Amino acid sequence: MFDLMELGPTIGAEVESIDLAAGLDQAMISKLREALLEYKVLFFRDQHLTPDEHLAFARCFGELEVHPFAQHRNGYPELMQLHHDDTPPVDGQYQENIWHSDVTWRLRPSLGSILRAVEVPPIGGDTLWADMYQAYDDLSPSMRASLEGRTAIHDFLPAFGPGIPPERISAMREQFPLAEHPVVRIHPETGRKLLYVNASFTTRIVDMDLDESRALLAFLTSRAARPEYQVRFRWQPGSIAFWDNRCTQHYAVQDYWPQRRIMERATIVGDTPS
Ligand SMILES: [Fe+2]
């Protein structure tokens, strides 16, 4: 059907001998779903998909969402476009070089994302993913016990606020109220516990002194940065990454400016974390 080559002890596998443009039958979709649950992020090489083929592949795994703040490909609202060129990053920072899972500020953060490389720099611009099950499992028993039943607030404003015209912020807040999610989430399909706070969108732990919350979040969000939990992917044109956004975080390395890097992402709607 297709072959899988593992890329790390707990996270990452490359899917070989598959042609995504040819379309997938039900058996293949089920096998890819199983592989996604096991390896958390799947990589594909040399898949030169059209925008329609990219969307068709993503729709095999669920309904797609539209990102309210990011730009999208012309005529394709469900294809978010990440476009970087010789415009200098502000303070050395893009949105993507902070550890995060996507859109956790939604009440229903996405199930997964399918990211396609359109144009990549000759060197640099890799993306890393971290296994947040493992990050949780490695916490001490007393730390795990102290997080039991805790929730945290997730907010789009720290990351996207600077790009939103001030007069639109209150309307956006109404549309996307602060989201409260468990600090330790149970994956809806595997039943495993995982650490579900991130440096980009999680602003505080509920019912906790603000200083304590800050210190604890700094510790918990830093766990994604441990190389032991990571896989790193070097992009080529036509490469695709499909990640389970519920149990992973990712970080796009910003080491290629002023080269161009253009990526397109289709994002699959997820469920309410519990
Ligand atoms: Fe992201």
List keywords for this structure.
274 residues, alpha+beta, Double-stranded beta-helix, nine-stranded mixed β-sheet, three-stranded antiparallel β-sheet, binds fe (ii) ion
Reported CATH architecture: 4-Layer Sandwich
- Give me the CATH superfamily: Clavaminate synthase-like
Identify the CATH class: Alpha Beta
Mean pLDDT: 95
Bound molecules: fe (ii) ion
Q: How far apart are the first and last residues' alpha carbons, in Å?
A: 34 Å
Find the structural class using helix and strand composition.
Answer: alpha+beta
Write down the overall geometry.
Answer: globular
Give me the count of strands.
Answer: 17
* Strand composition percent: 25-35%
Q: Sheet with the most strands?
A: 9 strands, mixed
CATH third-level topology:
Double-stranded beta-helix
Contiguous low-pLDDT stretches (5 residues minimum) are none
| Total tally of structural domains | 1
Give me the strand/helix succession.
EEHEHEEEEEHHEHHEEEEHEEEE
Helix content: 10-25%
Q: Give the count of helical stretches.
A: 7
Radius of gyration: 18 Å
